[in-house]
Structure prediction request, 855 residues.
Amino acid sequence: MNSGNSVHNAQPEDLLASALGAGNRPFPWQTALLDLFLNEKIPAALDIPTGLGKTAVMAIWLVAGARRATIPRRLVYVVDRRAVVDQATEFAERLASNAELLRELNLDKLPISTLRGQHVDNREWLADPTRPAIIVGTVDMIGSRLLFEGYGVSRKMRPYHAGLMAVDALVVLDEAHLVPPFEHLVSTVQDQSDLRSAGEADPIPAFRCLSLSATGRDKGDSFRLTPGDFEPGAVTRKRLDAVKRLTIEGSAATPDNLMDRVWTLSGEAQSPGRYLVFCHKRDNAENAAGLLRKKGVEPILLVGARRVHERERDAEQLKNSGFLANSTPNPNASVFLIATSAGEVGVDLDADHMVCDLVAWERMVQRLGRVNRRGERTDTQVIVLTGPRPEKEEDAAARENQFRALQSLPHVDDSYDASPGAILRLKDEAGPDLKDLLGAASTLEPLRPALTRPLLDAWSMTSLREHTGRPKIQPWLRGWVEEDPQTNVIWRKYLPKRDETAFFEAVAPHLDEKLETETYRVVDWLMDRAKAADKSIEGRVAISLDSSGDVSRYWTLDRLRPADSKSRTRLKDDLFRDLAGATLIVDASLGGLALDGLLNDKHDEEPPTADGPNRWETVPFRVRVETDPDTESSDSGWIETTRFEWDRDAEGEVAEWLIVEKQPLTSTTEDGRATSRQVQLLNNHQDLAKDKATAIATALRLEAPYAEMLAAAAALHDEGKRSPRWQRAFRAPLNGDGPYAKTKGPINQALLGGYRHELASMRTAAAHPTIAALPQDLRDLALHLIAAHHGGARPTIGTDGFDDLPPSSLEGLAREVALRYIRLQRRWGPWGLAWWESLLRAADQQASRELEELP
Prediction:
């Protein structure tokens, strides 16, 4: 990583202290890890107890990169999907807002993309491959991008994401013990040479992975606490010795019993403190919250299955109630938090006391890390309810092992010592029998498939909608597990009546609006909401998208209202099959979203939506209905990209249009990126793209032949836009100095007729002297980059709209594109080739942005 050429005065440890904030000095282990990073030695794993600042890896990486350490430029911080209010997002946003640190690092801005907050899913990290960037994402978000499937990413953008995610990137997997298949996946991406380039001394930067865990795992190259962390008076020592007195009770872990125990523990809410209740099942958590409300106390409910939009309230509630570390609790109040696994990982919870049910050993360690986290109290109590004995023999055996694992903790009077130090010593001093017991008390690692080059090649052919050798990627991310299928639910004010796939490419589902929950819940909820809905709702009320973002089915109210019980059963089966792993977009008028952000089949009110009148700032598009097709938006900050028929009159003429508008340079479609707030001349755009490509090559220290190749491709990448067909379809000014590379649009897709300017650009470039002068292998690479710079040519590209060539010649041209892709894929590897494509795309986008921002 290279963050600039400024003269550095501060010592690395002082920079790290500034990054940690609030006058904090680094822990001894953090300083030692920084030394390793500065010497370009990244360990395979970080084994540090909960509450000792593992998230500081972000700051350590940033400081080491600023000191010219040759480490990856992008840090990808991965949390499990159950994390709802993730600490990593908070930390990344704090780093990005530290003006003093950025000045010292010679950065005007640290691009970050996070799970929630002002940077949610903004994809700023794609803008410049040469600059440091932080991406915070879930296992499914990051893993799907690594494997060219990109959940929530258009097919044409997937290579861009994969190329920058698997090259010059450090993937930090938090709580790696929760998802061992994904840990194996990223290790394979790092270590398996046949998945990458076949060449020697390639210019492609490395990919690295670092696993984080707090459960004491045996991994070869694990970095652990240093002797300085155990010194008397050290902050780490204080946290290791944090008092946590654990009591085991045989009562059934029902909502009633859990609430009775926490109610007694809190002195019927008269003893001030922060009380945390963990429930394995969400239904139990919701019922427990209801019981507490009946006592006149309003708890905080921290569960999954909510939109990011509503999760923001969770973070604020947790902070105001003092449950987040470094927040200030009310010393005179009793506050209650009821959580599922959503509170076990990724969130820096700090409660005073805890009541919970019994779960697997590694999850118990996580839960215990959420009480007395800073070691400030001497009276923290933890009560674990273990009964009754499960009916299934295998479940009973697992429960017995979990029970015995807790009993292995040191005795203190009539309780057990559950401090981080005690858990650490238990693991370090365990003999073979105890190690076997802790293993048996932990969640069994699921079986997983191997990642092979043929599979990766199949996934990377992103311009093919169907491929017989391209299986679903979920087993590579989470293994073969018996989990309830999940469905994403999204509420929208406007659902298209035709051209559905094109519409949802233009207004693709955004992370902020997704609610993920079990498919069986969605099926029952949808049918109940359809039964209760106003019968005046006409047309489509629900549309499903498959994992590729393509529309798979739609439903009207009539279709969701079966006539009899037999039809209802058949409909439920059909819905479950259609919605498992899919995204369901429903008409907002169906309601069904409670104020707490959970599905609720009794809630009639229309929820806020990303495309409604009061749109969310994090969403880069908006939709409006217009009766006059020639009416332009009065808001200069928005650009119309496309329009769709919304309604027709009695004569069959279009009476209303759905107008899709974007903010400048934020379009989700490749054609949409050619619409701009102001027109851009083609020559100016390509000249500037060449300059940007040269700057990228210089920053990446590419050798001269590669730099020349990249610059040549950038200088010719849009030559196909000279076509009169393209200029007319994009409504270029008739009396200007064209041809133009960017226009104000909107695009006339019918006139464009499927014409792909990238293919025409490649034809022109093949005969250009600059390209012809390149060595054969680099000439091939330059032509592919031009053909693929909008996500096509992997391996196919459209040949419609070319009036100057006969079909036989077009077939030959398309065949040439596909064969070139295969040759280059073999030479550079799937991720290496995608990385090269990302460099030209970035130069193109940077040139567009700079010209767009001119006065």
